[in-house]
Each structure stands twice: as structure tokens, then as C-alpha cells.
């Protein structure tokens, strides 16, 4: 070996060491998580019936794309593209009370240069056991209507006769005088607490122990795919959340949420099967044509078996494809018949929630009630998946 060769070798070794070192110091983008505030406590996941299921899924080459948007002013987008050839064997064994353990053995071949981060093989719910992954049965009774709040039929839960044709909404609020109907508008109120708000200056951030009580209206029936739309002018005070959502019995959820103070944005979100992933599925969208607290805007979900499109004033601002929600052996895409709910709630109840909602509200400086004004709501049931009543 001559000197030149030795030198080249030395330089190469140095370069390799440097490269390895640089790799170690690469900044890791860590998605920030935000607590997902709920208008109501979530129903606990239903226990899974003890069963022994062995399923072999056919290997289907798929392309997975995961897009994560954080519900915050700074948004991070993570895009992973990979070709996956899977032969998954799923074994669910008996005596399971609250969660199912799934053993998955998958062969992954990828053309991507970056390694695929290994995902947890333990999920809360088993995959779809060979059934058609979406419940496309047409036995959900649904009624299409537009409520302009002139002749609204809002009933108390105890007077509802279970015939969805007899009423439009069920008042499920926890307080008195939670709404007023006036001049073709529904005024959704958030009522000031009668007790002291109980401000806590927690190191994690301020919050209130006692919350204002707001309106929640449930539709009298479930929607199984279709279009739901609300036209409203929201309360612009930080800490106040105006919401228009769908919610299924098993915790599939599609959201529009407007938080006070940030009056130039609307937030979209979705959940699947009661699985709460904080700040994972949320999106923040600019609202054109004036602030959300001084102008009326229309917020829409167009919910179809293969995608959900969120719209503001008729313009699509986000589309979620079902094929892009495949995770842990299942499409984590809302697909069960769901109530449509609208309301207003106090987002001051925990440091994370208050921070997200631009609160907490200082009730000592507020009137007896805060109000979001709803001009109309329209629900159109997809006739392919609903029995129209
Ligand atoms: C499918 O949806 C219908 C309502 O449309 C419901 O009655 C039925 O129980 C659902 N089936 C499953 C397996 O979830
Ligand atoms: C709505 O429901 C709540 C709770 O049952 C009740 O106190 C209230 O009077 C109802 N109606 C209105 C207009 O808020
Ligand atoms: C209202 O919707 C929820 C889903 O969030 C459902 O569990 C509840 O039964 C509904 N209440 C009424 C009175 O329909």
C-alpha cells in the first residue's frame, strides 16, 4: 500500500465518521400533542366479546400516506409513502376485557430510502375480521331537512317520542335557557357560572374549575353518509368553542370547531371508534370573507364512504381519504351512522384545553351569557346508505 492509498483510506474513514455524527444530530420533528377537548365525556370503549378469531388477510400491495396536521397555529405535515406487501395473521384470543392485543407479522418491502418507523402492534380494536370494512348497509333511517329556525321543532329528551319525523332536535343541554329562537335564528348560549369560576394558576397553564354551561342539540336521528351544513356567526371570546359535529355510538366523529379569539380560522377534526389521539387528526383552515365572529359563514362536511370533505362557504378546505387512514390493520375512518350535534361550550376546564381554546374565560368580566348565532342547519342524507323517512 502506497502513501496515496493510505491517505485516501484515512480521508474516507473520516468522512464516514462525520456523516454518522451528523446523522446523530439531525433534529427530530416531534409532533406536538394538544389535548382534545370534548363537549361531553367520551363513552368508554365497549369491551370486546371474548372470542377466538384467526384471520388471514390477503396480501394486497397498498400505498400508505399518513398526513398529520396539528391543531395549532404551527402545523407540521408528515408524509410517509411506502409500498407495503403484507401477509398479516391476526390472532385475538379469549378473555379480553377492555383491549384486544393483536399480533401482526408483516413483511414490508419498501422503495423508500428512509426506514419506516415501527408502529405499535397493540391497538384498542381488532381489525375488521374479513368483513367489508365499511358498514354500507342501508337500514339507517334518516331525514333530509333544512332548519331556518322559523318553525323549529326542538324537544326535551324526556318528551321525544322516538319518531324522527316528529321533531328536528333534542335539547341535551345541562342548563336552563341554553337557547333562544328569535327572528329566524337560533341563539346558542353559554351561561355564566352561578358560582365563582375557581381560577387555578397551574404551572401547566391557567384554567377554571367551574365552567359556563352551553347548548347542545342532538339530531333526532342518525346520518349515515351525506352532507351536513351550518351557517353561523360565532362568539369571538377566547375560551368559547362553537361546535358542529357528528357522533356515532362507537365514537366515530367528524368535527367543525371554532375557537374564540382566533377569528380568522376554523378547525376540522375527526375521530374513529372512540380512539382519542390528541392533536393528530386536526386541521386549521383560513376563513375568507371576514372574521368568524362578525360575519356569517357556512361550514360543511360532505361525508362519503371513501372520503370526507370539509368546506367553508362552499369551498373545499380539506379532504380526508379513507384509503389514507389505514393503520394497525384497519381503516380508521368514521363510517358508522352518527347523530349530528351543534352547540357551544366552555373550553376553560383544563390547562391544555384552555390553551387550545385561547382561554380560559375570565367570567368576572363577562355578561350573564355569551352567544353564537346560528342562521340555518341543513342535513342531506345519502339515499344510497339511508332509508329516507
Ligand atoms: C350497520 O349500520 C346499521 C345502521 O345503518 C346498523 O343497524 C347495524 O347494526 C350496523 N352493523 C354493524 C355491523 O355495525
Ligand atoms: C334544555 O335542557 C335543559 C336541561 O334539561 C333545560 O334546563 C332547559 O330548560 C332546556 N331548554 C332550554 C331552552 O334551554
Ligand atoms: C345524543 O347523541 C349522543 C352521541 O353523542 C348519543 O349517545 C345520545 O344517545 C343522544 N341523545 C339523545 C337524547 O338522542
Describe this structure in words.
Residues 49-68, 113-122 have a biased composition (Low complexity). Residues 1-22 form the signal peptide. InterPro entries: Beta-glucanase-like (IPR000757), ConA-like_dom_sf (IPR013320), Glycosyl_Hydrlase_16 (IPR050546). It comes from Diversispora epigaea. The chain has 2 helices and 27 strands. By secondary structure, the protein is mostly beta strands. The chain has 2 domains: 47-131, no CATH class; 140-388, Jelly Rolls (Sandwich), CATH 2.60.120.200. Strands 6, 9, 10, 13, 15, 20, 21, 22 and 26 form a 9-stranded antiparallel beta sheet that branches. It has an 8-stranded mixed beta sheet with strand order 7-8-14-25-16-17-18-19, with no helix packed on it. The protein is globular, with a radius of gyration of 25 Å. Strand 21 and strand 22 form a beta hairpin. The protein has helices at residues 3-24, 351-356; strands at residues 53-56, 62-65, 81-84, 89-92, 140-142, 145-147, 154-156, 169-171, 179-182, 185-191, 199-202, 205-208, 213-214, 216-223, 226-233, 240-248, 253-259, 265-271, 283-286, 297-303, 307-312, 315-321, 326-327, 330-331, 338-346, 369-381, 386-388. One 2-acetamido-2-deoxy-beta-D-glucopyranose (NAG) is lined by residues 135, 137, 139-140, 224, 337.
What's the CATH first level of the largest domain? Answer: Mainly Beta
CATH architecture of the largest domain: Sandwich
Number of helices: 2
Number of domains: 2
- Helical fraction: under 10%
CATH topology call of the largest domain: Jelly Rolls
Calculate the mean pLDDT score and round it. 75
Radius of gyration: 25 Å
Bound molecule kinds, no repeats: 2-acetamido-2-deoxy-beta-D-glucopyranose
N-to-C span: 89 Å
Q: How big a fraction of the residues is strand?
A: 35-45%
**Poorly predicted parts:** 13-17, 19-132
User: What's the story with the biggest beta sheet?
Assistant: 9 strands, antiparallel
Structural class: mainly beta
Which word captures the global form?
globular
- Series of H and E elements: HEEEEEEEEEEEEEEEEEEEEEEEEEHEE
Tell me the total number of β-strands.
27
Pfam families: Glyco_hydro_16
Region (Disordered): 25-68, 113-135
Organism: Diversispora epigaea
InterPro entries: Beta-glucanase-like, ConA-like_dom_sf, Glycosyl_Hydrlase_16
Amino acid at each position: 500500500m502506497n502513501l496515496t492509498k493510505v491517505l485516501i483510506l484515512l480521508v474516507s474513514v473520516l468522512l464516514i465518521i462525520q456523516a454518522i455524527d451528523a446523522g446523530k444530530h439531525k433534529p427530530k420533528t416531534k409532533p406536538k400533542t394538544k389535548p382534545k377537548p370534548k363537549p361531553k365525556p367520551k363513552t368508554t370503549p365497549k369491551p370486546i366479546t371474548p372470542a377466538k378469531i384467526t384471520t388471514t388477510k390477503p396480501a394486497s400491495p397498498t400505498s400508505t400516506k399518513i398526513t398529520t396536521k396539528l391543531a395549532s397555529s404551527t402545523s407540521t405535515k408528515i408524509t410517509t409513502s411506502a409500498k407495503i406487501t403484507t401477509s398479516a395473521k391476526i390472532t385475538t384470543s379469549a378473555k379480553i376485557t377492555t383491549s384486544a392485543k393483536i399480533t401482526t407479522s408483516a413483511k414490508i418491502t419498501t422503495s423508500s430510502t428512509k426506514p419506516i418507523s415501527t408502529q405499535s402492534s397493540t391497538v384498542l380494536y381488532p381489525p375488521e375480521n374479513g368483513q367489508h370494512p365499511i358498514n354500507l348497509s342501508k337500514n339507517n333511517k334518516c331525514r333530509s331537512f333544512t332548519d331556518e329556525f322559523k318553525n323549529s321543532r326542538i324537544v326535551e329528551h324526556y318528551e321525544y317520542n322516538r319518531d324522527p319525523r316528529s321533531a328536528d332536535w333534542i335539547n341535551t343541554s345541562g342548563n336552563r335557557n341554553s337557547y333562544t329562537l328569535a327572528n329566524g335564528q337560533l341563539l346558542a348560549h353559554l351561561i355564566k357560572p352561578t358560582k365563582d369560576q375557581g381560577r387555578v394558576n397551574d404551572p401547566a397553564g391557567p384554567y377554571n374549575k367551574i365552567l359556563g354551561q352551553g347548548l347542545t342539540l342532538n339530531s333526532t336521528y342518525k346520518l349515515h353518509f351525506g352532507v351536513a351544513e351550518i351557517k353561523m356567526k360565532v362568539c369571538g371570546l377566547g375560551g368559547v368553542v362553537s361546535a358542529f359535529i357528528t357522533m356515532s355510538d362507537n365514537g366515530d366523529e367528524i368535527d367543525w370547531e371554532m375557537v374564540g379569539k382566533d377569528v380568522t380560522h376554523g378547525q376540522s377534526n375527526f375521530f374513529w371508534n372512540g380512539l382519542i389521539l390528541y392533536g393528530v387528526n386536526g386541521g386549521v383552515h383560513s376563513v375568507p370573507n371576514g372574521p368568524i365572529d362578525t360575519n356569517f359563514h357556512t361550514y360543511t362536511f360532505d361525508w362519503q364512504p371513501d372520503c370526507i370533505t370539509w368546506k367553508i362557504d362552499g369551498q373545499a378546505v380539506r379532504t380526508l381519504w379513507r384509503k389514507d387512514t389505514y393503520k394497525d390493520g384497519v381503516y380508521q375512518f368514521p363510517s358508522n351512522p352518527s347523530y349530528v350535534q351543534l352547540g357551544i361550550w366552555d373550553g376553560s376546564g383544563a390547562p391544555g384545553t384552555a390553551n387550545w381554546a385561547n382561554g380560559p374565560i375570565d367570567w368576572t368580566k363577562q355578561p350573564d351569557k355569551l352567544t353564537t348565532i346560528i342562521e340555518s342547519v341543513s342535513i342531506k342524507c345519502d339515499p344510497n346508505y339511508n332509508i329516507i323517512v
